[in-house]
Design goal:
single chain, about 500 residues, alpha/beta, Rossmann fold, UDP-N-acetylmuramoyl-L-alanine:D-glutamate ligase, 2 domains, 12-stranded mixed sheet, 6-stranded parallel sheet, 18 strands
Amino acid sequence: MHATHDYLPPRVYDGDQVAALDRRFINEFGASSQALMQRAARAVYAELAEGWPMPGRMIIFAGPGNNGADAALIGEIAHAGGWDVTLVAPLGLDGISQAARAAFDRYRDAVGEIADFDDIPATGDLIIDGLFGIGVNREVTGPAARAIARINEASARGTGVLSVDIPSGLDATTGRVHGTAVKATRTVTFIGLKLGLMSADGPAHTGDLAFHDLDAPDTLYADQPYRARRIAHRDLRHVLPARARSAHKGDNGHVLCLGGDRGLGGAIRMTAEAALRSGAGLTSVVCHPDHAGAMSQARPELMCLGLDADDVDDMRLSALLDAASVIAIGPGLGAPDEHTSPNFGDRLYDRAMAADVPLVVDADALNRLARAPQQRGNWILTPHPGEAARLLGCDTADILMDRVGAVRRLAERYEAIVVLKGAGSLVATPTEIWLCSQGNPGMAVGGMGDVLTGVIAALVAQGLTRANAAVAGTYVHALAGDTTADAIGERGMLPSDLIAHLPGELNPVAR
């Protein structure tokens, strides 16, 4: 049983792919449905015993599929372990498989009859959610919706909720909620790690996530398709070795940060400070003159050049563009102006696009790109879902319904490495889709994306490939967010709080 992100498996699958693994396990490797149900029940009970070590009152919500059968077998084991168990089947048990019927018969023999749903208040110490598995793909209504409402009401009152394989009502592929879904305290998932548990609405419903392969052999997974790879600490250690004792600042690159129009200086300052804290040898900022002096005083390590729109052709900027290892552009750049001559942000954007230097593109630079799409090759785009929708000419809802497909389309359309931000951030590289399972809701505040831009740019400056910089930067940014949350809590976390924790995550040790 693996119960932490550090030990979750690396490959992430959609619902259809996990179903195919299940069938392959049975058809090619000789595992029976009954045996897999019993293994699943034992795996869940082991997690249950760790999280709720004192037996109490348990209510099981069982559906007519294999998840419900798993839940019935959990009830049998829990009853033997001293739990007071009640099982309800709000959707009935008509048409269930022979293996599922055998599981419910075992429950009746060991514990007793199945209770009537309408007569059972959802009060107790623990609820087992076994209503639906990974096959949900339409709106949850009727008795199922009422059962989920009752589970969530009990959860809000402090009752623990443990979901079997996936919270009922959550889409295993997209992570979207089909009308309503269980909000679990913990979820124990089997066979393959589902994308929906770690993307979109998934993290808000999954709770603590544990995985069990049900004793599947490694050969089950050989040559089988998957949707993404989960970023893990070993990936970070691989691309961030210790620095040579003879290193000097020139070895660690020069990040040029472009943005910070009048009134928007804070955004580009956070990008620049994140680049410094992420190990860039030199970091320069070109911003509106209103901000340059104050920025230099507040952070003297930054080299700040103040320019207005009429000065963007200045030779000093040309010299910085020539000296830069990478350009980070977008934070505080300001919106494009359709009705007047090109403004500060427009001119900086044009200069950056003309430079033969790798780019990390965020915020208002992405909005300019959406207005005039182009391919470049040597750049990294870091959109949130709204920006991604503008880049693809669709609605934000379309992005959320298929985030993997969206990040892949962005990478292809713009010939770019793409980081699609959000819960379960995704990184599209030429060979993989990577998923970041770290991070927390405290990071949902303005400025966090500006910090990420600086982290990624600093890693490019230090010689990482664009793909490795995007993957490692996304992971380090999330780790620093989790470290910050551990230190001060999620609510009220600021991007500048996170910046202070970047060095600790960027100097990894074996663990």
